[in-house]
User: Which sequence fits this backbone?
């Protein structure tokens, strides 16, 4: 509900398929009954308004461990 939690990313390939794959791992863990702590932190340089990337972290009580940085750029 807080618009400050929104960030701008390239749709293709950053959001889909790269981030989608990691988000699917988290969703599967939750569907499998794990309680998951999940955070995504944008990486900014100076006063830039668009992040250079995002770091995704997720830890589940059933073994999920995810810590990746996805760069916000097109190939």
Assistant:
């Amino acid at each position: 509900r807080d618009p400050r939690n929104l960030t701008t990313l390239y749709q293709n390939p950053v959001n889909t398929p790269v981030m989608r794959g990691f988000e699917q791992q988290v969703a599967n863990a939750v569907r499998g009954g794990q309680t998951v702590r999940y955070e995504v932190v944008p990486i900014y340089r100076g006063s830039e308004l668009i992040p250079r990337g995002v770091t995704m972290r997720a830890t589940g009580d059933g073994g999920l461990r995810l810590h990746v940085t996805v760069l916000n750029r097109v190939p």
Observations:
- Residues 28 and 34 are 9 Å apart (CA to CA).
- The first helix runs from residue 11 to 31.
- The mean pLDDT is 96.
